[in-house]
């Protein structure tokens, strides 16, 4: 019993990271249908900038704020300098652009920062919290709370605010959105800023548990992408549930089956989801325009 | 002269004439890598350029092809050359199994499924150490062709042999791809690329055509993986890695996913870039990322078609 | 007569200037990619040492030029760069191959071209069986296992759990440890693994903790994994001795794991980590002290064990070229093979035609982390 509890706790810890990355994918995807492969780099920037600002003597909360703001600025720059000029290009080209951006950001990061692993202290100490015979780190609860908060924020944003609905409208039909007076350019810029900020927040919350270095982005992006697919691309609820579920699947695989194929679980899940229910758990069916 | 004949002549000329300008054996090595990559990218041209599908896991097939050459000779007693064909058949089979249900769907699903597939292949190659000897890699037996040539009096260095052999395979691969382009299948594929629904309306079995393109491109990637393994005489699971898949797609899109010559150009640029940039080693990744973004922003169809259009525009 | 002397002097001068033509040494190292953690200090070390050597007048009056390529840890690239080094740059020796995969890809090139190659990777396959042109400086993984098992036996531990990374380093060490465990009298009764970028290993550690009879845990891995394992180990309050591998032997590991969680962790390390604690008559003491001081001054950080591997490779090579009095690859190879009593950071190296590593288990020191620093166990 305590064994199962520990596996679940582990799953939630890891799942919260995946959920945060998956949530970051959601907004850009909603606004533009683009899967942003640089999302993992946003997480890396969040962790690395916080680390170095903290090392430079800034208090942790201030360092984290700077990191989130700076990463959001990187997101805006990515939109303005690379995505906007490529307007109208097929989605494949846009995906290649985001992959190029991820390689570019990684290259800059290893030059500006370094190639070592880094970590900063957990927000509220490292003393494990005992729960039903298992233990969980306080930082894991921070991560989980962060993921849920972001989810609620996004949900409210997309359903309760005009701007959020404008984002969804833009994704559904760009031309129609423009016709009803939505500033499509601004919506895109906003989406990139938000996605980047959420990615950076994920980096800030997760670094005390996962460590960070200039090249953690790819692995995170792949897992976060798998989580988003599992939940249903573009749906915040799907991203949250998909992320946690993926974490749990991995932890239970590692605990009960084999730790060697724990990482395979994510990708087996992708294939199974595609075969059985291609829209993911919460995705909606889309129709094709002629 | 048809585009097809012109493309083949240009490729053959490049293979034959370039060595006259090579200052050292190292250039043969880079050349043969370009040809191997161009072969894999020709497969991507069929999948992406003709059929409009994206794969983010083709390195997985290269991994299957490469490890087939390492393992089949030892465990099945196959000649390394036959092992490459065995790997190609295996890759085609896997592509068929995965592609069949996926390609009934429209959208990105192939990209996602192939991404998962590619990573799973890399994982199996790294983890099943009893068979593959794990992440540190495994030796690959010699193809023996170079020795056979030596026996009949043609004595060339190993790097030179692999340069010409890879070049030959690449030209044959291009020839097949160009023939496919002009075949009924190719025409139907291009129709489908234009508008899938329109293609469906005129009675084209869209799913089957896309599946055919996916299987053929998997075979290309597999053979490229085999060629690489055989010339390196050593292979590691890295060959199946995600970044390698990305590299293949990037080469195709960079050069021009719609044209075989574009595939060659893309492969040539991305293969030589890290060699040229060694002076700016620290900036290599930055420059690579920058090139990818700039080409996609300013030359959407890829370098070759964009340049060709510009030249033609000037003539008018 | 005078003219003759003048002519002779001129000739001698000419010969001297010809002799001061550069000696080219090649290196292909994983400065980026998944093994950048290892390759980065290696490359920095080589650059620093070449600069220092040239400032001091080079080898036998000849300047040394380092041709350094970054293979990103990709074995295929490593092979291409090795080909470039021997065919195009015409180097007289190659240092590199940060990972075992990269090393194995370089070996055929070095053997074909008959250029001496000193590898910086761990696996025993590199030098066993002995290859004419291939040497290496790091301990083999097998030696790390043996050293750890020796320490376990001394503490009366015979039944252990293992948790290994699935990357090349972890997989290779796991294999070697499992192979020699029976003869060392150690029984591995739990065997878990984790991916190189994993964030949480509590499920695997829970399984090991719950396996009846486990007396200690050994973690084979480098980079990110071991620090997470160490933190999770404390989180679960496993309470058994924890052993790490030589792959984490750097100050960075203690910082990353947190000194609280790392307290009491034992691992086999090189003299490099405990320079201050070495006996004054230890031949490695001055070498280690000099290297650490220079590296610290140049880059503002402490060098890692991996940088030490590159240091030793370069020291062996310069020593061999000096003794050979020639930069001919074959003569360099022969001289490397007769290296005797050369104190490096990793061990005191004495090569023979049968031994291309040149030191034994005694070069490893069993270290324990106490109060956020290293202490010697034996």
UniProtKB/TrEMBL annotation, chain A:
Annotated localization: Cell membrane
A molecular-function term among this protein's GO annotations: transmembrane transporter activity
Family annotation (CDD domains): TM_PBP1_LivH_like
GO process annotations (BP): amino acid transport
Protein's UniProt keywords contain Transmembrane helix: yes
Keywords: Amino-acid transport, Cell membrane, Membrane, Transmembrane, Transmembrane helix, Transport
Membrane-spanning parts: 7-32, 52-78, 90-109, 129-158, 179-206, 212-231, 238-258, 264-282
A Gene Ontology cellular-component term: plasma membrane
Name of this chain's protein: Branched-chain amino acid ABC transporter permease
TrEMBL record, chain C:
Presence of keyword Transport: yes
UniProt entry tagged with the keyword Metal-binding: no
Record protein name field: ABC transporter substrate-binding protein
Residues annotated as domain Leucine-binding protein: 22-358
GO BP: any one term: amino acid transport
SUPFAM superfamilies assigned: Periplasmic binding protein-like I
Key words of the record: Amino-acid transport, Signal, Transport
UniProt-listed CDD domains: PBP1_ABC_RPA1789-like (cd06333)
Cross-referenced Pfam families: Peripla_BP_6
InterPro entries (UniProt xref): BCAA_transport, Leu-bd, Leu_Ile_Val-bd, Peripla_BP_I
Signal peptide: 1-21
Assigned protein family: Belongs to the leucine-binding protein family.
